[in-house]
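To whoever is on call:

I kicked off a structure prediction for a single chain this morning and the downstream step that reads the tokens threw a length-mismatch warning. I double-checked the sequence; it's 617 residues and nothing unusual in it as far as I can see. Pasting both halves so you can look.
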Amino acid sequence: MSNRSLLGRLFSAIWGGVDGVRKVLHLVLLLFIFLLFFGAMQDTPLTLPDRAVLVIQPYGFLVEQIQGDPFERALAELAGDGKPQTLVQDIVDALEYAKDDDRIEVVYLELSSLLGAGLSKLQHLSAAIEDFKTSGKPVIASADFMSQQGYYLAAHADEVFLHPDGLLLLQGYGRFLSYYKDAIDLLRIDWNVFRVGTHKSAVEPYMRMDMSDEDRESTLRLVEQLWSLYQADVETARELETGAIDDFTDNFTEIVEEAGGDMAIAAAQYGLVDDLLRRTEIRELLIEYVGSDPDNPDTYQAANMYDYLAQMRVLSGDKVRSQNVAVIVAAGDILFGSQPPGTIGGDSTAELLRRARNDDSVEAVVLRVDSPGGSSFASEIIMDEIIALQEAGKPVVASMGSVAASGGYVISMHADRVFASPSTITGSIGIYGIFPTYQRTLDAVGIATDGIGSTSLSGQLRPDRAMSDQAKRLFQMMINDGYQDFIGSVAESRGMEIDAVDAIGQGQVWTGMDALNNGLVDELGGLDDAIAAAAELAEINDEEFGIKNIDQELSPGEQMLIDLLGGAASMGVDVSGWAVQRSLVDDIKDSVAAKTSTILRFNDPKGVYSHCFCDIR
């Protein structure tokens, strides 16, 4: 009895200790959660002085939609490791708020970190800058090093400054591709390319080692039109003589030589910038406008764009009302299945359209498209949901961004109205298929494939066996049929004859101006024009409708974790360990994937694509 009693007391003591540890851990966990919660609730709101500079500093590339899974992106942003991208609409909204805000006396565009943007995005922002300037408030622009895209925005400022040791480089527009045929031959891969369209150039990098005459013709037309638009806009904004930009780029070497080899002096002497100022001098200039920061007399009183936006969006309230125009962004390559933002998923984008259809507060939808296309099957899935919206009595308006070509045009063409900017790249009506086989590669290392099947089609679509003539004929018939379906759908949706569509199809690419003339779009205009048109089609009064952005959202659990981590970060806790850590290998992988996306990313179940390699920079 005493032994059992002793054993019982021992187990009881152990259990008591374990239970005590459990209670302590439970208490610590609760305290941690409460600390995070209160930290999240104690974010100090932005306090603006009576006079302030709104600092807009675009970082990376201007985009219609920030790429990446929302949860991983939120974690990366908390850890200070977000993608180098700036949302166009954020800058537009900030300028709109600041226009009527008496606290904001000047806008400062710091453009050193702007890496790139499509011309249509730049035009959208320049219109917002010009609208802000109607308030009578000045816009100041500067940069250490000014890209061509950065200079376009700077040209619309009242004053433009460049660092004395900086440079301003205008190169015009171009399109240069890598071609892989010789590498494919060295690897002994049979690429098996099938296409329809004399100008459908997306497959050319795998078929040849240079640009075809047809692709060269289309590309030349595009780059000349885009460069003409760029020059006209900048020369008007800077009040330069017609042809001044062309003269500067064509004679750049001689102009720099006359300036003693100093590119910054050359830009100033030519009148592209107003003066050469160092950062300290820029700060002094802005201090003259709004005064010194009381906490830091060496600089001016400022409001960072993102802090300012966060405050103003809360103060201004939600744009959503009882009747709304929904805005859905479709940006990036079109892939099969569900995909994160920055890529268009057949399933995920279709789900967003269904949400708009089932939302009683949504009266009409604007689909903002910025895509060169991709999977033909995924494009069809999205198109079906657009038609379902229309059948439900909700009009759909397509608003094209920098690119809405191939599959990007497919998901736009059935809209009740289609808007494009003058510099939109669209069209590329054509399709292709690729089925690489590597049986010769295996043979070179001593591997063979053999077997037997029950029909003549057995084993025909194995990448380790050569495609038979029968399989090639079937594949080409499928591509031909897909093209006929494509031009037939365009003809039906645009009210055109099939022969007329074929004449402007064949993979040819057009600017928005050309697309308007040949009937591919209804009107030239931006996102705001498309929203107004959608409200008109839905017969909603201009002052009665709201704007509802429908996009992928965090789950309640993910949102709670982000809020708690945000609170912890505000209390000084290092939350970087929660973010996905990227390595050099990840960066290399992404770079390779970007250059070989047709192989590594595209996942159409039939292997059929409507995609345009029409990135003009």
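Update from on-call: the warning came from a stale cache, not from the record. Cleared it. Sanity check on the structure: Residues 38-44 have pLDDT under 50 and may be disordered.
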